[in-house]
Amino acid sequence: MQCLLCQRLIQSKFSLPWLLSWRPFTRPVVCAVCWQRFKRIERRTACPGCGRDQTVPRLCPDCQRWPAERPFHNVALFTYNDAMRAYFQQYKFHGDYRLRRVFEGTMQTALHQLNGDLVLIIPVTPSTLLSRGFNQVSGWLSDGLNQPRGLQTLAREKGVPQSKKVRQDRLRTPQPFMLALAAEQIQGKRVVVIDDIYTTGRTIRHAADLLLESGAKSVTGLTLAR
Amino acid sequence: MKKSELYGRQLCLTPREAATLPADVQKITGIQVSGTRIQCMRCGEFLNPREAQLPNNQYYCYACLNLGRNSTLTSLYHIPEPNDFPQRPTCSWQGQLTVQQRTCAQRVRENFEHRHRHLLWAVTGAGKTEMLFPGLTWALQRGLRCALASPRVDVCLELAPRLQAAFVDAEIALLHGRNPAPYRYCQLTICTTHQLLRFRHAFDVLIIDEVDAFPFAANPRLYYAVNQAVKPHGALLYLTATPSQELLRQVRRGDLEISYLPLRFHQHLLPMIKVTLQPHWWQVIKRGQLPNRLRRQLARYQQTQQRFLLFVPQVAQLAAVQAAIQRALPALRGLTVHATDPDRLAKVQQMRDQRVQFLITTTILERGVTFPGIDVIVLGADDPLFSTAALVQIAGRVGRSRERPTGLVWFLAASHARTIKRAQRQIRLVNRKGRRLRDAMPVVSTIDSK
Ligand SMILES: [Zn+2]
Ligand SMILES: [Zn+2]
Ligand SMILES: [Zn+2]
What pTM, to 2 d.p., does this model score? Predict the structure, then answer.
């Protein structure tokens, strides 16, 4: 098996604890060297608002500027570093759909632990979907199926992609989503919203606003990177 | 997009990007799906359906992804090559060819004229590029579209200025992955073999230099690229110093003609490889010491100031080798360098300028780089990381100058690996041919020609 990121051969070692555990063997898709370049965020000390990597669990300066009373917080799994930037370059922009498998397991485990009543993913615009052929978040969740079951996409207006905007512009972006769900599907539910990267938080907080206005009990964001 | 940018090309575009193209553009299926067989029509790769799948029964090619994604959501767009070249470039090169170079150059030109497929096996340091000039001049004068491709970027970068100097009034396009300049339609193209995947029946004359170089040999995809890029009745010339088994097979099958240039420009034979078995060289060096025989040889170099290259299989071994040498012979001044070393060019320049006596390196310096009058030592020459082609190329670094046409090529190895034996056999073979050629020649021309 070749590493999906550097193409080097991965040596799978059958360790004794694993042999004794009787767990099924899941083949690693990236080598140890590449995997170490990603920086996992320690959740106990991360910012309780946005999930940013910190040494103490205190609201970070960015989060202090958001209204605090909303029942929303974000969980981020990795720091957006050079390795992560290179990953998204290859996965999203070059369209190498195989790379979904790099974070498939991590993402699904995290989602499982959050244990929400309703899971929604941030959609991509129809024209992006047409040229890219996939939604990068769905890729991590559904192993090649178009949309994960139980998920509903939100329609999003066209415009300048988020990645082309500076922070000030992003924060001023108007609500880009609408809900394609009946009110009773949302009311009183603990909703998990998944996106790829938390940068300013504007996108995912728009989705959260909409859900909270529609009666959701709480909204938790889950992003691969922060 | 200018129409000429599609001449002899196959560009991968989405329907929306293709909307503005002229009407006579041909649209070619990018990915051929028939049952479970899925083939990329740009690079020829047969794709694993599980790996190549996108949602909604769409597929993409993961093999040539870095040229822009070819998928069932895109198509390839092409305009047949019209040979729209108003100029007729001339050759301004003033140099002289040796007698054998002239014979070879004549042969090359004839093969271009008859649109043959031809392998030229020329020893390292034979002066291959100059032998192409008469044939290229002939082709450019007739308005033929020509390309010179190599698997290695550094070879392309080195060739471009030499060809531009030889054909001053020719328009030359230089294409490789790291060149940000936009594509231009030119009569002469210099590119990496990978870039050939963007061409379709474009070239009347296609030359592949250093055809044996990694990754070409291991890559049947690039033979596909070559056949796609050359016109169906175009001329194809492979240049190599170390032909792969695959190329020799094509020669035996009669698909390729072959000619040899077994002598270097200074008429001397290639230095033979000397092998010493040293099974534990790495353990010794890891302990911070040098194997005795190596230490004695390096001590001699310290006295004679003889310059040399020291090859090791892996980048991770460079530092330890350097440390062991420093400890045993502190007066020897050298540097380590490897392929992704950010200071690579500066260090190679220091060696060129004779500011250091030696370089310790991995396989990156095996081709293209010439330091006159050096010796070469290879540690762990039996390591699978050194292919036969790499070993022949490494040996070929020695004896490149008229002033010192011989030198030491010394392999320290744990075993007489097949790669080493094959390298020795290849050198023996061309030397046998070279000796025969030299014996057949009038004595005057062997000394005076250059
Ligand atoms: Zn890797
Ligand atoms: Zn925060
Ligand atoms: Zn392909």
Answer: 0.79
Cα B31 to averaged position of ligand 3 atoms, centre (Å): 8
Q: Please, what are the averages of pLDDT over each run of 10 residues along chain B (450 residues)? A: 93 91 92 93 94 93 94 97 93 88 91 94 83 96 96 85 94 89 94 94 95 61 89 94 83 88 84 94 94 95 95 94 95 89 84 92 70 93 90 89 91 94 92 83 42
Task: State how far Cα B446 lies from the chain centre.
Answer: 28
ipTM: 0.86
Q: Say whether B274-423 and B99-261 share the same fold.
A: yes
Yes or no, beta carbons of A146 and B56 under 8 Å apart: yes
Residue boundaries of the structural domains of chain B = 3-78, 99-261, 274-423
Among chain A residues, the shortest Cα distance to B13 is held by A131
Give φ, ψ of A5 to 5 degrees: -100, -40
Q: Regarding the domain delimited by B99-261, which CATH topology (the fold level of the hierarchy) does it fall under?
A: Rossmann fold (3.40.50)
Strand partners, B119: B238, B258
Task: Give helix B418-440 / helix B388-395 axis angle, nearest 10°.
Answer: 50
Q: Thinking of the domain B274-423, which architecture would CATH place it in?
A: 3-Layer(aba) Sandwich (3.40)
Q: What is the DSSP string of A34-78?
A: HHHHS-B--TTTS-TTT----SS----HHHHTS-SSSSEEEEEEE
- Which residues of chain A neighbour B66 with C-beta distances below 8 Å? 94
All domains of chain A, ordered by start, with CATH? Answer: 1-36 (no CATH), 38-157+165-225 (3.40.50)
